[in-house]
Amino acid sequence: MTNEQHEKIVLAYSGGLDTSVSIPWLKEHYQGDIIAVCVDVGQKEDWDAVEIKAIQSGAHKFYCPHVADQLVEDFIFPAITANAKYQGTYLLGTALARPLIAQKLVEIAHLEGASAICHGCTGKGNDQVRFEMAIAALDPSLKVIAPWREWEIKSREDALDYAELKGVPVISTKAKIYSEDENIMHISHEGGQIEDPSQALDYSEFYHFTTPLEETPDQAEIITLTFDKGIAVALNGSLMAPAQLLSTLNAIGGKHGIGVLDWVEDRLIGMKSRGVYETPGATLLINAHERLESLTLTKETLRLKNHLALEYAELIYNGQWFSQATKAIQAFMQASQETVSGQVALKLYKGNVLPQGMTSPNALFDMGVSSFGEDDLFNHHDATGFINIYTLSTKIQEMKG
After folding, report:
1. 20 to 30 A from 357, CA-CA: which of 11, 53, 148, 246?
2. Single pTM value for the model
């Protein structure tokens, strides 16, 4: 037993395996009241049942702040306007929710006068860094307890045995030992047979948001998204609040098998891991947004924005949401969106997202200039001088070689 004592400990509680067994473990190894905090970021849960389970497992008090709207408006939509994709691929569904969850944990720790925050992240994962970076940014005086870095439990199988020993009910089994993280943007699946990149997976075993391709409709569906300064505001002409729009697109995209990523990623902690992500709505939003930017932003702005998007995604993935660098990039991204308004139509079919046309009052495309026909602005003869200058260095290099 540690000599360190805490009067109150705020536990980041999900009701899953790791956080469920954390309650009896904390009661054994630390003195004080455990305050379970399950932050509602849009996951589908019976919140009354989650509270009952937390209290029955030994928690002194339970909080459940409902912040899905804030997650979409303040975290997800800014990432979409940046076209942020970690390693050019992953849409950051888990990473975007962590700073908001940490923010709520710190707020409740202040409200309750707690001196420590506990999380159930493993020592191999990214989330331990994301939570602790956010806590350090918001209140570095708060201590952090990470049971996976202290206890004798070495695996999820051990955790299941411990849960049975302590009489803590959990959904996971040794046959289906997947670790899942859900919010309004996505759901991730890790663990079990997913860990082996050589294994082909039966996705129907764990899909939540998405219909397997074999079961998707045989008829394509066309949708139209309306953007105002980079933010999606309407679907098929109907104005929608951000969270409602994303949830609706999740249902539509999921129905057509869109937005599944089976991927081996490089974790911050220094190892590769395989995960399966379902992100249908955000996949549609980023697809449409990128197309609209191609119509409304200059070549130089797009090049700079694409470079910063990779840096921005790396910062978010690595838990740096509250950093100076992140805030600076966000300022650029917001400024870049002044002209990104218009409509984008997409055809959805069997996992595919196909363009069906787009319009914008700020379009930089000019049919007269870009077509092969004659126009008043561009003279084909001018290209001769341009080519002569542009190829000059190549000619000199060849002559000197």
Report:
1. 246
2. 0.90
